[in-house]
Amino acid sequence: MNKYFNKVIKEIKNKNPKEPEFLQAVNEVYTTVAPVLETHPEYEKLAILERMAEPERMIMFRVPWVNDRGKIIVNRGYRIQFSSLIGPYKGGLRFHPSVNLSIIKFLGFEQIFKNALTGLPIGGAKGGSDFDPKGKSDMEIMRFCQSFMTELYRHIGQDVDVPAGDIGVGAREIGYLFGQYRRIKDAYEGGVLTGKDVTYGGSLTRKEATGYGLMYFMREMLNANKQTIKGKTVVISGSGNVAIYACEKAQSMGAKVVAMSDSNGCIYDKNGIDLECIKTIKEVNRGRIKEYLNTHPKAEYMLSTPHNKPIWSIKADIALPCATQNDITLDDAKRLVANGVIAIGEGANMPCTFEATEYFLKSKVLVAPAKAANAGGVATSAIEMSQNSMRYYYTFNEVDKKLETIMVNIFKNCDSAAKEYGCKGNYVSGANIAAFKKLAEAMKMQGIA
Ligand code: NDP
Fold it and tell me: In the annotation, is 126 catalytic?
């Protein structure tokens, strides 16, 4: 392994000892770009790896709010502005009790590479809070969002930093955040947040974009390997924004989706998931996936435990982890391979552990890596920003077509980078190399900044 790589990884570990997710993300990228370092010895002198792994700015703040019973709750807010090398900081906000500095840093680091792959002028950032939206009333969500934005507003702007949604942050939360921003600024700055509702500046197809984009990438990857989506059996973890629209596109491409999940358990419907029912449970009623059985009594429900996610034991050709990080462990990977899986499509960020990814690649399973395969969401956010600047709207089909073209190009770039560096068919390495080369060259040109 390259000496410069070894030295930097050691330094980053010493500097960030309590950040396992962040270290995992850096290690995964830097391991695969080692061959590029061999052909660019100047990167060491320019401290490219050190600079890329150090955020430009980290903001942490208090978020006090009052619940419906009049109790004062204090949460912690984060915004990590990782890189503005190729555009304004851009990346989602996650509201989930598991949120901590390590998780936001890993997501921000991944975002730099993902955004570079889209070919659009957007830098990388991520933010969020350890606030848990589950079980909260709309008024509690609103009061929390207003308090969060009362601090965040001073750090963002349509040419500075443009947040969007992620786990626990959908159209409702973006609406409350935007309302408070507009009030504080006393101006309509539509491009300051993306994922807005179409009634006040949002883009058609943004809601569908990450899931649809994942399936466009999957189609390209399968076609390049003489396979098709049609007729394949699919399992999808999660039942949120990404999972629902990945399911919709997979079904429209002729696949049969037989299982979906939430953090409590999974449903298995051998006749194929009834997506309209899932949409009603999750998008309208904000319910639990178990409720699917109320209208589909022949389907099965299996509980998850911290060490057993039954969804990965179901026989499938394609597995789409669309819930959260480290969802597929080495043991899960072994079960999926034993059951004949041919492709993994990462809708979530870093959903496979390092060991699981290695096992899939060793077993000749195709892996569509998150940075590339789920980039459709942020790419469509950038399209939303450009519509806001132009004060103009594209139709659903116009945005969908642009999204599809972007995903096809991302696949081509990953494919050719993998071929150029001697790892044909390894799209994990291909994605990392293609993004890293672009960012390293931009860093080289902009001097020590
Ligand atoms: P949502 O909040 O809409 O849905 C998240 C889903 O994942 C829910 O079904 C949730 O179940 C499940 N989940 C969350 N945490 C856990 C956990 N610890 N264990 C098991 N299941 C869990 O989020 P999104 O669909 O927007 O995001 C899903 C993933 O996709 C995330 O990794 C996100 O970073 C990534 N992503 C999202 C993009 C977007 O445009 N939204 C863009 C690119 C990536 P439950 O309800 O029980 O918590």
Answer: yes
